[in-house]
Design brief:
The protein is 79% helix and 0% strand. It is globular, with a radius of gyration of 19 Å. About 2% of the residues have low confidence. 51% of the residues are buried. It is mainly alpha-helical and 296 residues long.
């Protein structure tokens, strides 16, 4: 039971991170938010696990580098930039489709246990739900909802879901090698920062002044993203996957759209209308249907 609570805590926190990031975007660029968030997270993990992880084989380093490039650098950059162009509600719902892409990638790698008529029906239902949410979250005006900015933001969120699916497959591979969760997460963070730092230096623009950076709202949101959502939740997610398995743990991700939509409406004042409600329900139903195995 306790590992189910760990998974639920992790997903609840991740469902609210879209709101924190949206707030920070008023003062910081997407790249600086990314750099500061994972720098804080890396420091926390270094305190928890000061020792350096010793790899059993040199080629395993490629797995950690790929995980850092996808799950840390690329995914969160796509997510942060998407939030510039569309609502937190839309991004939260769209990225929750990552388990669908994970199943497709796993099938390409040889595991076709999830592919069935039920999977493809659920995939179609979930994708339809994402379109409906994008319409409802964009504006009450249909033309604005499908405008260039909203469409671009929703597309970036969809790409982020695909990247997270790649990362999930890599994490499963790393976990199968028997590396300790906190130490392996720290190494993944380090590789992520290796990609984020030069990108921020080249394209991140100037960092906000200390007076803005240390405003209580900005400081609290950065600490929340760095300490709780990054350092703590990447570890707790690894623990839940280890003890519950990836299939059971992934089902908790289906709560993210509802959590994000609720937090965005309450804290950011984003719209709540019939298309958003219908789209969230369609997406969650499609995800559940697609991931449900045929009865033996």
């Amino acid at each position: 039971m306790k590992y189910h609570l760990v998974a639920l805590f992790t997903v609840f926190v991740w469902g609210t991170t879209f709101v924190s990031t949206k707030v920070l975007l008023a003062s910081l660029s997407p790249l600086w938010i990314l750099l500061l968030r994972f720098a804080i997270g890396f420091v926390v993990l270094c305190v928890l696990r000061p020792r350096i992880l010793r790899l059993r084989e040199r080629r395993h380093e490629l797995l950690f580098a790929a995980a850092g490039a996808t799950g840390i650098a690329a995914y969160y950059l796509l997510e942060n930039v998407a939030l510039v162009f569309t609502t937190a509600t839309a991004v939260g719902v769209i990225v929750a489709a990552s388990p669908l892409f994970t199943a497709v990638i796993s099938a390409l790698l040889g595991d076709r246990s999830f592919l069935s008529v039920r999977f493809f029906a659920g995939f179609a239902l979930a994708m339809g739900g994402l379109v409906v949410v994008g319409f409802g979250a964009g504006s009450d005006d249909a033309a604005a909802a499908f405008g260039a900015d909203a469409f671009f933001g929703n597309l970036l969120a969809l790409l982020a879901a695909l990247v997270w699916a790649v990362y999930s497959v890599l994490v499963q591979r790393i976990a199968s090698l028997g590396y300790e969760t906190i130490a392996s997460t720290k190494r993944t963070f380090l590789w992520g920062l290796a990609f984020i730092v030069p990108a921020t230096a080249l394209f991140g623009g100037g960092l906000a002044s200390p007076a803005i950076l240390f405003q209580w709202g900005n400081a609290l949101n950065l600490l929340f993203l760095g300490v709780v959502a990054s350092a703590a939740c990447f570890v707790t997610w690894g623990i839940s996957v280890k003890h519950l398995g990836p299939t059971v743990s992934t089902t908790y991700i289906y709560l993210v759209p509802a959590i994000t939509a609720t937090a965005s409406i309450l804290l950011l004042g984003e719209p709540l209308n019939a298309p958003i409600v219908a789209g969230v329900l369609m997406t969650v139903a499609g995800l559940l249907l697609s991931q449900r195995r045929e009865q033996e």
